[in-house]
Amino acid sequence: MNENSMFKKLSKRELFEVLKNMALAYSSSWFKSEWIAVKKLGIENFQGREFAELFKEFGAREAKILVERSIVTGRNADSIIKALKLSHWALFESITLEKLSDSMVRMRTINCSRQKYAIKKLGIPYPCRDIGFPYESRSGFVRAINPSAEVERVFCPPDQRPNGLPENVSCEWIIRIP
Length: 178
Hints:
alpha+beta
């Protein structure tokens, strides 16, 4: 009997929960390894080209699978929104995706789990902007769907929070599609 037969016997709901649990375990380990690397190397040594490429490749690989399997077709705003709804961001976090126009999408993370963890356990905000993962992974993800698309950071800790931005918004991004 094939080792994977156990997975085949699960209901869709059970399979989803098992895979979500695996993904959360990997995400938690990734997050903790980032903190260890920053602590040992210093934030300035964690911002190099190698890390930026790793983060970009991570995002691109996730989106390419959706494109290669024809789950996401097209390169427009609606296609990017669909892909983001099927991404790790949507799995792990509460995100909002708003189509501002045919060429612009706003993505917000609401009450980010990493921010909550960092503040609760470490007493400081998680320095997403300085680590680079949020921008590079989003950029790689979006460009795997539309190579001309651009990602712009509106707000990402430790940035100064823009006036009028709701307190529950942990970060905000604009995706431009030419």
